[in-house]
Amino acid sequence: MFFERGLGSAIGRWLASEILILVHSTAMHAPAPSGDLIPIAAEVAIEFRNVVYRFSSVGGPLLKDVTFPVHRGETLVLLGRSGSGKTTCLKLINRLLSPSSGAVCVEGKPTDQWDVIRLRRGMGYAIQDAGLFPHYTVGRNVALVPRLEGWDQQRISDRVTEVMRLVGLPEAEFLKRYPDQLSGGQRQRVGLARALAAEPQILLMDEPFGALDPITRTEIQQEFQKLRQNLGKTIVFVTHDLAEALLLGDRIALMEDGRMIGPFSRRDFLASDAELVRDYLRAYRTSHNPLLGSSETRTGNA
After folding, report:
1. pTM
2. Are 263 and 76 spatial neighbours (Cβ–Cβ below 8 Å)?
3. In whole angstroms, what is the distance from residue 33 CA to residue 27 CA?
4. Could you give all domains of the chain from N- to C-terminal order, each with its CATH number?
5. Left if phi > 0, otherwise alpha if psi is -120 to 50, otherwise beta: which for 150?
6. Cβ atoms of residues 17 and 289 within 8 Å
7. Is 106 helix (H, G, I), strand (E, B) or coil?
8. Confidence band (pLDDT; 50, 70, 90) for 292?
9. How far apart are CA 262 and CA 251, in angstroms?
């Protein structure tokens, strides 16, 4: 269940301390094997196999020979700057795009062998600014996919109530409101409730908290961390924020110019010698120096 509001500063201190602990533990202990949070034999829910994606025949590819698995029940964070290929990966998973070569597999089947409607309705999708229909009430927005799936009205009503409570929005207060009657944080919670409503096993999340103010964003990040641990969904989460990646990801893959570095466990990411990873860590420590102090010296030269 979501926790009380008004704790932004406390959560900010908690987040900083968590990152500091990760940085410190990396220096104090030998790095764990890559992917240490996911068993080697874990089932694969999503897999990219040598994927290349070109927007057209003119110009270079947007994705270049990308290969990685997403294990069932894990949260994989795709971290990178704008234009690096993160959102392209999400669109290939739900077949908004198709690979130019290679294959994207969901539950062991290439996406081009899925019925595209069934594929997409089996996934929750949460985006920045929530993407709610402005002419629908909160209740209708949340119930959208269950209605399309033909659920009976009682089942829909029960599920809407359940997910609204999960995201900390009492149904009696919020179901009849319209999106323009909500704060940014409330709209994002409704967007998450809608993504969860049809009980998907896979969630695709494209910078869902990026448009929020820092205090609300930090609150929802910690709330989502607790929620994802309880739900056990397979999540692919896109962000350009290193702190968010370290907080929410079981593993982190760094995207740059259509290529992928990793995925890494959080500990392995912090210990990596990859130049681009070190650049990210150096930039983060510089911008958060009051929080992390001289932690760079604890993890060796960056």
Report:
1. 0.76
2. yes
3. 15
4. 8-42+73-88+115-122+201-276 (3.40.50.300)
5. left
6. no
7. strand
8. very low
9. 9
